[in-house]
Recover the amino acids of this structure.
């Protein structure tokens, strides 16, 4: 059985960031994944809500930053950044920093006496002393109970569509009050669908679109971090995960909720002027009515629609990662489905590390975003390299175009 020092499972922003930092520190690293695969599943036409610096992978100032990509590629970029531009940027990072991604699927991870053993889709096995799980949130889709048993022709989650144009001329009820639900509603409306939004909250939250950044001018950096997560002041605290994790849980939880509460980007408001946005409503029942769906809402009103689109987000539970052996999952200390992580993003199972959204319970809300990859990659690298200083050389140039 072959053995490698470190394996990164995942080739999205967090996996790419981790691999870039590890290799700069000369940590032998083997990477498995389909580069930017989750982002390819998002609806065409979407825009990123994050600001310029926070959209950078691995670092916001350096060889892999969005600035470096624009300079190297000559791409014309503006904010809000289109989804397809971000995907192209991600593939550019992959070609520069991780040109040798192994696209085979890891079907099982289990423990043995020497560490962790990975089984690949072709039957090969690989042993490693450190596995970095950067597998994203695709396995954590949250579907409310009311959708159970209903056919996909009538009910689906926003994550299941790359082209919302398929709903042209059809009536769609969108459930949710966050960015995914609201932007999907805007795209549906622009594709000539008859669309309505129902949100449980009594009001919708809208971001300020940089209003206070502009008002504060050069002083904005005192209360807003480059990571662009959270409102004034809180932004600076959650941008330092080592500080955030040392706060009492009674302070962490409300701060995290405030930083990531469902909200829509300011630039969505004008696109939704002609879309009914209902608040204080939840779906009580949904039953097929011929080829359509009969929906009853909590205010007693009913709708008969062609489709119910769930913008209900994701709920982390590492037990839903199908590649993790059940015995291994049982050995990981968790809270609310999140692994409890220590230094180097390491779980209670030695050598098993988690990046991205699963790290949010331990290191705060920033881990749910692309910018969280900056800290995660640095923390992991310091741990696995024994604290060696990172190389000052740029990320490796591509050996082949594997995008």
């Amino acid at each position: 059985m072959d053995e490698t020092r470190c394996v990164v499972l995942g080739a999205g922003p967090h996996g790419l960031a981790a691999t870039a930092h590890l290799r700069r520190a000369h940590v032998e690293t083997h990477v498995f994944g389909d580069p930017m695969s989750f982002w390819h599943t998002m609806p065409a036409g979407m825009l990123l809500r994050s600001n310029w610096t926070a959209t950078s992978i691995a670092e916001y100032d350096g060889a892999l930053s969005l600035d470096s990509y624009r300079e190297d590629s000559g791409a014309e970029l503006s904010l809000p950044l289109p989804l397809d531009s971000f995907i192209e940027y991600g593939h550019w990072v992959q070609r520069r920093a991780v040109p040798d991604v192994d696209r085979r699927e890891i079907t099982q991870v289990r423990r043995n006496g020497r560490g962790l053993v990975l089984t690949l889709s072709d039957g090969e096995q690989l042993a490693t002393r450190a596995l970095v799980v950067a597998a994203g949130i695709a396995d954590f889709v949250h579907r409310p109970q009311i959708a159970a048993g209903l056919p996909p022709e009538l009910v689906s989650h926003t994550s299941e569509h790359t082209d919302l144009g398929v709903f042209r001329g059809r009536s769609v009820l969108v459930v949710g009050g966050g960015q995914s639900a609201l932007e999907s509603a805007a795209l549906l409306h622009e594709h000539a669908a008859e669309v309505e939004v129902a949100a449980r909250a009594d009001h919708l939250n809208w971001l300020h679109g940089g209003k206070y950044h502009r008002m504060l001018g050069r002083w904005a950096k005192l209360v807003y971090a480059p990571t662009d997560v959270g409102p004034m002041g809180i932004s600076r605290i959650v941008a330092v995960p080592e500080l955030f994790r040392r706060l009492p849980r009674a302070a962490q939880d409300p701060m995290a909720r405030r930083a990531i509460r469902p909200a829509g980007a300011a630039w969505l408001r004008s696109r939704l002027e002609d879309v009914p946005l209902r608040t204080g409503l939840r779906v009580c029942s949904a039953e097929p009515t011929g080829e359509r769906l009969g929906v009853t809402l909590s205010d007693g009103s009913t709708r008969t629609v062609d489709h119910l689109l769930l913008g209900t987000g994701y709920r982390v539970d590492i037990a839903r990662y199908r590649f993790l052996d059940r015995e291994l999952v049982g050995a990981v200390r968790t809270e609310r489905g999140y692994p409890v992580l220590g230094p180097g993003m390491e779980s209670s199972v030695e050598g098993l590390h988690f990046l991205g959204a699963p790290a949010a319970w331990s290191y705060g809300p920033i881990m749910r975003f692309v910018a969280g990859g900056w800290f995660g990659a640095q923390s992991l690298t310091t741990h696995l390299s024994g604290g060696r200083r990172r190389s000052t050389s740029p990320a490796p140039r591509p050996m082949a175009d594997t995008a």
Observations:
- The chain has a mean pLDDT of 93.
- The chain is about 25% helix and 20% strand.
